[in-house]
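Entry 14. Ran structure prediction on the chain below.
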Amino acid sequence: MVEKIFFDLIKQREDEIKSLRKKGRKVIGYLCSRFPVELAYALDLIPIRVFVTDSSYESLGTVFIWERMCPYAKLITGNFLAEDSFYSQNIDVLSGTVICQVVHRMLDVLSAYTKKPTLMLIYPLLRPPEKDQLELFTSEVQWLKKELEKLSQTHLTEQKLKEAIELYDKVRKELIDVYESYLEERLNITYKDFIKLVLLSQFLDPFEFLNFVKEVKKEAGSSSIKKGDNKVKILISGSIILPENEVILDLVEKCGGKIVADDTCSGLRSFYGIEVKEVSISAIAKAYLHAIPCGATQCLDLGKDERLNFLTDIIKKYDIHGVIYQTLRYCDPFSFKVNETQKFLQKVKSVAFLPIHMDVSSSEIQRLQTRIEAFIESISFKLGG
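Output, structure tokens:
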């Protein structure tokens, strides 16, 4: 049901943002789920995650981002450089957590050619984080606070920050509840619906999102649900899942699988485990730094790698049968982790593993369907299905 009205909600929010900007509100677009939205919201800014794009602008992005680089970066760059796009016209400041070097390059390009201010937040790459890394990231968040205060021409108050922290805590708890309800088959939604809800939580006003979730629960909870007890349980890992490449979610369901978890920055990893426990800058920094890390981070001791341990725990918890590791073509941070992830998971629990490299075009659907169908059939055969 979420899928049917997703783009209508996006369009309504875009119109709302245009209206709010006419009244003087400023919009900050962020690229990474490790951007502390509580700070922006507490300063009366409008934080929105940049993910919905017009693919027709990708060719413009390739002028500045090499063709053999991340398609997400090319899409975003093209959308900001196109003078008639929503992002170009309505985002006042762009922020990114510099984990991926291509994102760093993209922010440099957009700063130079759009003249929009860009705020690059340095995120420690070595895991697990030590005391000095927490100090570094806390200083970065403190710097971000000062920059956002300049943008909003407002001083951050403890009360406003407290309200923002509590509000986004409610948003994350609602997402967890929806996820668990989906797993327990109390809600008649698909995993694609869930991913879209996560994306909406980062684009809609938080209060509007919470009201929308109530409607989803009411409608999806009252309709008949098809039991999926005999389906092959799949976990999706790897690159970001965008509206442009979400076809992989459809194909898993179409081929007889049931997605029960993911490890992407557009799904569980974007909110799972983020809990701000105090009303302070240091508590915000700690919450975001100690959340499930991006695959672009590095851990010298794989036994202490939080991302791999999260995958292991969730595979065991839900008795997952197979992992589909999807990477956008030329997404180096995740492409380089394919073998490492596969070997680690097979040592811990023998689980089927399918690496898939894809772009954001629809021309690959048949190839993807053939591979996913064969993967799920082979698992089903081993399970005696």
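The chain has a mean pLDDT of 90. Will compare against last week's run tomorrow.
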